[in-house]
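Re: that backbone. Tokens:
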């Protein structure tokens, strides 16, 4: 991970939180000087506050505006999901 300056960090939200392995991975990495673009899928929890948490968990990184996509959209409406991703990518540059 040390060779990358820009990181897309994707994860699901399960029962209102990110899976514990995500926390383990995040806490084990050096985030200094990185830019993080977070995204997630969910079943109604949105980002469950995880994008804000990432700002402290990824100490030293710039955490951009994240993207949350409902799992039903990601699974059943590829065109809508693609449009949401395209919009988000355009917004974060």
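Recovered sequence:
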């Amino acid at each position: 991970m040390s060779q990358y300056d820009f990181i897309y960090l994707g994860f699901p939200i399960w029962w209102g939180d990110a899976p514990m392995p995500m926390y383990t991975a995040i806490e084990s990495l050096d985030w200094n000087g990185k830019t993080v673009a977070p995204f997630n899928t969910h079943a109604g929890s949105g980002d469950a506050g995880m994008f804000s948490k990432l700002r402290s968990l990824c100490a030293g990184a710039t955490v951009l505006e994240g993207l949350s996509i409902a799992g039903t959209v990601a699974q059943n409406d590829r065109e809508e999901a693609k449009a949401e991703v395209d919009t988000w990518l355009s917004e974060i540059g």
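The radius of gyration is 13 Å. Residues 78-92 form the longest helix (15 residues).
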